[in-house]
Amino acid sequence: MHVDQDKYKTIIVFGALGLIGRHVSKYLAENACNLVITDLDKNGCTKFSSELSKYEVPILCKSCDITSERSLRELLEATKKRFGNVDSVINCSTYSSQDTLSVSARFEDYKLSEWQKMLSVNLDGPFLLSKVFGTSMAESGLGGSIILLSSIYGFLGTDQSIYDSVNTLKKRHNNPASYSASKGGVISLAKYLAAYWGKENIRVNVLSLGGIYNNQDEKFVKNYSKRVPMKRMGDLEELNGAIKFLLIDDSSYFTGQNLIVDGGLSVW
Q1: Which of the two ends of the chain, N or C, has the fewest CB atoms closer than 10 A to its terminal CB?
Q2: What is the pLDDT confidence band of residue 4, given thresholds at 50, 70 and 90?
Q3: pTM of the model
Q4: What is the arrangement of strands in the sheet containing 202-209, beginning at the earlier edge strand?
């Protein structure tokens, strides 16, 4: 799959060092584009760029903080200097914390500081990167595609029993309210921007994911899978078709939509 048969498109992957970001970056590198990978960890980005060099596509790696408009503008300028126009951006960034007892605390015990950290990355970040790169796309007159990742928990309630079954005193697994609120906000933001920039031919869509298998606790996988019509968690490779569709010109009339990849969980 070449995202454009006539020329390479320039695609930026935010959060390129995460589970989803790594997969999306590899998938794009396999399929010919000017690839920009970015995350907070500069050394990690450099190392990942070396891993992707086997695909022999032009790659720019640069650290970027999506909660900083200045950092985003520096990335934009570096990208334009290297490749010219930016065709698409995909945001795979999400907030995570090693302190799972804090980030996944009970709602009654949840700290405002954790709430604010989650929303800063998961909602402020998409707002800022859309502002910086969407504005650039509009000014270029060439249009573009913005893909924001969300989750089924952005529009569905959470079955906490799935997580309670694997909780311990030392480690807590949970989908906190801040995650749902931030991911729901992303869906609303995309709809707003799709309407706002439609006349500039800038498409803004959301890719909402169900559970993706990543060597989770066996009990968790079993309990989660029971809720899915297909009776399993998703595989990373099963995201490829959705990513391709949102990027290629064949989806040029598709904007403001929430494309759900969840094995049917949301049909219940």
Answers
A1: C
A2: very low
A3: 0.95
A4: 59-61, 34-38, 10-14, 88-91, 144-151, 202-209, 258-261
